[in-house]
Structure to design on (502 residues):
């Protein structure tokens, strides 16, 4: 009898020790992660919608792939996380402490709270969300320092996605001014493919933080399995595609914030949420995943994303900096005759002391250039409305020219190193304002606030971004936190935009 009880007890313990499979499904796709308390969570499946039993029965479960590998044990394999503790130790072993399941509206979320075995004050939360009304899976991570001393995040990617294919074809995009959206398609051969940028908040102009993978050696428009991903982040990004014999899943994607020159010091009792990585899966080719991403973006990301956009005319291509009242009046009336719906006054309308006649002056001084618009923008707004159109205006408030009243008053508000001669951007005198400085954040907000307070019927703002991040040094941040700049700048820009929207 004792032997029987012992055998039954052993069987019960074996079942109790078996990791639980957690499933998230969209209408046409499924994600499966298995987790066992005290062990690393394991990635099992991502693909067409299926039950766990079906995936297991078909032998499609991925084995041996941690959901979020960290540097510290199998250092010969790709890792998404590298953390340096206050004592210099950079070996991390993340294991499951608990699993949290939640649902809000159309979004179901699985969160795996992981804790470092060697330094239990470091926690990492893996978040996976699925939309019930579209085929979107989101992933991101949150680093939490519960200790009394800072830690340094040296690599802190948002997402890891193994792909069950040894014959992937990669599509990615790049471009520049007047040469946007160049499509590149290439096979993923053995090795590591990296797509990244260090251009700051102007990344989308050059290299796009998105990709597609054709899973059966091809990428057509309508009839092949495709995984697409895009990072919801305005700053520097970093994508890795690993295709090696060591990798049992064959192709392994990792992506998030670019860690280059961006060691992030996470202070005691603070946390950092990484940007969301958004994935779509379809068996209907490029068209299937692009339609999925577009539906999601229109519904959940864009203001009034399901409404038609106005047909607009922007003054830049017509007059460039020659934004006189006479020239703009002519454009407004002529465009209205063509059936136009919105007119946007672009660059050249501002600069009380230094009128904006070229690219070397006036950025930062967002008052009317009376020599060009003696009556201000009110007559332009009224004429636009009289012709049955809406009115928009151009600004670039995070930029400044050396030749400006703002720079004369606040030379300490720009990004630059105190001991170096700065590099200048567009026009030879353009610089970035240091958005990590709260006073600068208030200033940038006030630019938009003043325009809309004085002219509440301005319908549209074109916020341009014409300069990469030069002079990546902050006169506001302490020296010990200079490597936080790239991330803090982007977070500050997001904060300003949310404040304006609110």
């Amino acid at each position: 009898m004792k032997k029987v009880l012992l055998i039954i007890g052993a069987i019960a313990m074996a079942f109790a020790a078996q990791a639980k499979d957690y499933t998230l499904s969209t209408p046409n796709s499924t994600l499966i992660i298995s987790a066992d308390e005290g062990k690393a969570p394991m990635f099992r499946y991502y693909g067409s919608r299926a039950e766990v039993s079906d995936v297991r029965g078909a032998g499609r479960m991925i084995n041996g792939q941690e959901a979020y590998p960290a540097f510290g044990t199998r250092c010969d394999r790709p890792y998404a996380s590298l953390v340096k503790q206050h004592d210099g130790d950079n070996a991390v072993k993340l294991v499951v402490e608990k699993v949290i399941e939640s649902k809000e509206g159309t979004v179901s979320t699985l969160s795996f709270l992981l804790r470092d075995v060697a330094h239990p004050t470091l926690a990492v939360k893996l978040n996976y969300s699925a939309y019930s009304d579209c085929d979107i899976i989101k992933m991101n991570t949150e680093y939490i320092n519960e200790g009394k001393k800072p830690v340094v995040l040296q690599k802190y990617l948002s997402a890891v996605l193994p792909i069950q294919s040894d014959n992937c074809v990669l599509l990615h995009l790049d471009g520049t001014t007047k040469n946007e959206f160049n499509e590149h398609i290439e096979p993923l051969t053995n090795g590591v493919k990296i797509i990244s940028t260090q251009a700051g908040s102007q990344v989308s102009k050059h290299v796009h933080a998105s990709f597609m993978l054709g899973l059966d050696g091809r990428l057509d428009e309508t009839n092949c399995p495709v995984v697409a991903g895009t990072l919801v982040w305005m700053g520097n990004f970093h994508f890795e595609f690993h295709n090696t014999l060591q990798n049992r899943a064959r192709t392994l994607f990792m992506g998030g914030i670019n860690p280059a020159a961006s060691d992030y010091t996470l202070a005691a009792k603070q946390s950092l949420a990484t940007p969301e990585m958004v994935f779509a899966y379809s068996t209907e080719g490029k068209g299937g995943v692009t339609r999925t991403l577009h539906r999601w973006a229109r519904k959940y990301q864009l203001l009034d994303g399901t409404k038609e956009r106005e047909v607009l005319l922007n003054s830049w291509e017509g007059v460039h900096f020659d934004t006189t009242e006479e020239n703009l009046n002519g454009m407004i009336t002529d465009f209205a005759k063509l059936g136009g719906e919105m007119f946007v006054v672009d660059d050249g309308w501002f600069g009380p002391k230094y009128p904006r006649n070229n690219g070397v002056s006036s950025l930062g001084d967002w008052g009317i250039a009376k020599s060009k618009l003696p009556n201000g923008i009110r007559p332009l707004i009224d004429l636009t409305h009289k012709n049955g159109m809406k009115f928009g205006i151009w600004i670039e408030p995070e930029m400044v020219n050396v030749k400006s009243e703002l720079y004369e008053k606040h030379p300490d508000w720009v990004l630059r190193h105190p001991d170096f001669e700065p590099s200048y951007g567009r026009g030879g005198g353009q610089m970035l304002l240091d958005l990590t400085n709260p006073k600068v954040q208030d200033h940038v907000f006030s630019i938009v606030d003043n325009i809309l307070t004085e002219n509440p019927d301005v319908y549209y703002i074109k916020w341009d971004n014409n300069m990469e991040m030069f002079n990546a040094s902050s006169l506001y941040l302490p020296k010990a936190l200079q490597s936080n700049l790239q991330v803090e700048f982007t977070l500050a820009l997001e904060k300003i935009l949310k404040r304006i929207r609110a």
